[in-house]
Amino acid sequence: MSHRLKVITREEHLAFTGTRPSVSHLQVPSWGDVKPDWRGESLGWFDGAGRLVGAGLVLLRPLPGLRRYFAYLPEGPVIDWAAADLEQWLEPMLAHLERRGAFSVRMGPPVVTRRWSADAVKAAIADPRAARLADVEATAQDPDGLRVVDRLRRAGWRRTEPGGADGFAAGQPRYVFQVPLAGRSLDEIRQGLNQQWRRNIKKAEKAGVKVVEGGAEDLPVFHALYTETAERDRFVPRPLPYFQRMWSALTAEDPHRMRLYLAHHDGDTLAAATMLTVGEHVWYSYGASTARKREVQPNNALQWRMLCDAHEQGAAVYDFRGITDTLDESDHLLGLLRFKAGSGGEAVEYAGEWDYPLNKVLHKALGLYLSRR
């Protein structure tokens, strides 16, 4: 069945999001306000009876000097990805964006293809023959997700591959680590943590680490730790105004959309993290810590408090976000994978991000530009 697509209001988009148990925080209307270099637009899919049955936040970035745009739907759109007529959902979107002046479209279908248990990840890390998680036999495969990948490829979409050795995708992460919370008691979740995590949480409690929820006024403290983390872990940090804009935009839409947690010890802030919530899905978004007093284990204390709060508010999943695909011992990101795997959750592979060139010349020029950044 063909679907009618048109631009919808923020209110319509947000109301639709509220009917779904899980929608990416990158697909709520306010996310467009976080990105000032992009123009956010809400799209809606309507069935024959005029009911809103799908929605997506598209971010449009103009080419300098031209009225042509790169269109991006991060971790979206929110449509029926298992539909037998998937092309009838995507073709109206492409037609609309081409009329809008887009020369290339990128999207990230929110569909899972494979999962690895924490034990499988641990075994893969210990196996000297395993180079990448993708090459290790999955604990479970999702047939619907694998069908989406096949259908997109046959329809002319091209999957963007990781741009570097760290295994992270060019845009949003293809591999994440999640802790299922639905149907589990807090005691069961704690028992799912590995021995090191449980030991570190007790050590933090005994040392007197206190984790508190902060506000917008605490963002500079968070950012100072975040900048130190960026220098230590060799990544380019976002500026403080980005997080202040993020806080203002997301909490204006929903006062519980974004939270800030800080771990204190003897008056010293040792770690901090932001947490995002949409429906029953909770994300650990940005984390930061100092190298001081690491022996009191503030990071484990911080994550445990966030897991507890997510469970208390009825979340179905706690999402640690991106992990590396590489299992190389020399890769500094492997330590992050080990830390997240200690939570007892599972590594999850999504379908990844996909491009559709509406103008092949401009699309190729964009690819060359991005490869040189």
TrEMBL record:
Transmembrane segments: none
Superkingdom as given in the UniProt entry: Bacteria
Listed GO biological process terms: cell wall organization; peptidoglycan biosynthetic process; regulation of cell shape
One Gene Ontology molecular-function label: aminoacyltransferase activity
Keyword field: Acyltransferase, Cell shape, Cell wall biogenesis/degradation, Peptidoglycan synthesis, Transferase
Pfam family, one: FemAB
Family statement: Belongs to the FemABX family.
Protein name: Peptidoglycan bridge formation protein FemAB
Organism in which the protein naturally occurs: Streptomyces griseoviridis
